[in-house]
Amino acid sequence: MTSGRSRGRYLCPIDGYVVILGQTGVRLDRPMRLIFRPGEFGRWQVTEPGQVDAERLERVAGRVLGTGCVVSDHYDPDRDRPAGWDGRAGLLLAAADDPGDPAAWLVNESLTYRQCAACASRIPDLPERHVPTEWTPCRAWATKGRGQYRRSQVPVDQGPHPADSLAFSDCDPRSGTARR
Questions:
Q1: Predicted TM-score (pTM) above 0.90
Q2: Quick one: CA dihedral 29, 32, 37, 43, positive or negative?
Q3: What is the C-alpha to C-alpha distance for residues 6 and 8, in angstroms, rounded to an integer?
Q4: Could you give the count of Cα atoms lying within 13 Å of 38 in the half-sphere of its Cβ?
Q5: What are the residue ranges of helices labelled H in the chain?
Q6: d(CA 176, CA 180)
Q7: Number of Cβ within a 10 Å radius of residue 6
Q8: HEC letters along 84-108
Q9: Positions of the chain with pLDDT under 50
Q10: Would you call 114 exposed, middle or buried from its count of C-beta atoms within 10 A (0-12, 13-18, 19+)?
Q11: pLDDT for residue 7
Q12: Checking phi first, is residue 85 left (phi over 0); if not, alpha (psi -120 to 50) or beta?
């Protein structure tokens, strides 16, 4: 269930976060759709999704999440909910009445991790992590190792690195938030 180089890591199509199958993610066993259910939220009656919920609804845009799709366990349709949950407003997965063509279903694949061209950190190989032009990292040093006693500062390969190579967020020259 969690074998391979990605160790069972998937990108949740709903919220865009990395989830680990069996820990923070679940695999759907039937076609589902993400819907917003109006209801109560504390003392308030909520009839429309807030900004974050609207962004998540837009991310999947009415598509069917197919059998085998891995999503955050927060959206697990078979999860036991506490008493009083039925009247709460929010996003939930509901069975797709007319799922349509299975070829059009959204089913995510496990993530592949590769090394940053500059600092050698392991990062998910996603299109947005590839720098389209030749680049030089935004930082000169990286912290390596884990734990209190094994941390050390190591120099980052200043490149230049070829176009379409992977960049860790702190190394990516497009980020603008990286520290030197």
A1: no
A2: positive
A3: 5
A4: 4
A5: 51-60
A6: 11
A7: 18
A8: CHHHECEEEEEECCCCCCHHHCECC
A9: 1-4, 178-180
A10: middle
A11: 65
A12: alpha
